[in-house]
Design a protein that fits this description.
By secondary structure, this protein is an alpha/beta fold. The protein has a single domain (6-216), classed as 3-Layer(aba) Sandwich (Rossmann fold), CATH 3.40.50. It has nine helices and eight strands. The relative contact order is 0.21. It binds 2'-deoxycytidine-5'-monophosphate.
């Protein structure tokens, strides 16, 4: 099997991980894996079944009914397939964001998804983003980046993004949800969001997208032939 390279990008909700990782993947010719989308698919499945995200008995009972596949279209966009159904658009709601954060705390859920994530990295050069990529999923990743920004900056960016799409957005509400998810994602027992020992922290609070891309390319270029 040819040698593959992997780049792990972890960080809190709204730090710009997916925007940055997607663009970098395109520029470097890497496969982009959005692992948050996988947890969102799990949350969406149990939501359809009427199982609450903290109901571990319900989750344990029905988890074998869930089949998840990741597919890529010609443009390299990741699609989430849940029991044969493309749910890529359905998982992008605030409600599913919160439920994914809660459901991802269960060990049974994380274990089920581990090999799926690792398998992609065995056969492709990947940029994978999430919360535990550098610490748990790909501890031997060639480059580990921890992308962050203050909660206020992240909430403002999210607000602007929604308003630009013509959707309603309440900054205070968004900030509250971001802080809640930060707390849940960093305080769970299994694979919490934290800085890996060998991870490089990049604070994007005062950088625009081009600035972040340039900084990440510099960091990556020091470790991987580009
Ligand atoms: O990146 P995102 O906002 O789409 O992720 C949704 C939730 O999924 C997030 O709040 C926590 C969980 N998640 C996780 O626990 N581990 C990952 N590697 C990715 C996401």
């Amino acid at each position: 099997m040819p040698k593959t390279y992997s780049i792990a990008i972890d960080g809190p909700a709204g730090a710009g991980k997916s925007t940055i990782a997607k663009r970098l993947a395109k520029e470097l010719g890497y496969c982009y894996v959005d692992t948050g989308a996988i947890y969102r698919t799990v949350a969406y499945f149990f939501d359809l079944w009427g199982v609450a995200p903290k109901d571990i008995d319900g989750i344990t009972r029905y988890i074998d009914e869930l089949n998840i596949a990741i597919e890529y279209d010609e443009e390299g966009t990741q699609h989430m397939i849940m029991n044969g159904m493309d749910v890529t658009a359905d998982i992008r709601t605030q409600e599913i964001s919160q439920k994914a954060s809660l459901i991802s705390a269960h060990a049974i859920v994380r274990e089920m998804l581990l090999d799926m994530q690792r398998d992609v990295a065995k056969t492709h050069n990947v940029i994978m983003d999430g919360r535990d990529i550098g610490t748990v999923v790909l501890p031997k990743a060639n480059v580990k980046i921890f992308l962050t920004a203050s909660a206020e900056v992240r909430a403002q960016r999210r607000t602007d993004e929604l308003l630009a799409k013509g959707q309603k957005a309440n900054y205070n509400q968004i900030l509250k949800e971001i802080q809640q998810r930060d707390y849940q994602d960093t305080h769970r027992e299994v694979a919490p969001l934290k800085l890996a020992r060998d991870s490089i922290k990049v604070d994007t609070s005062n950088l625009d997208i081009d600035g972040v891309i340039a900084e990440l390319k510099r960091i990556i270029g020091e470790k991987i032939p580009l």
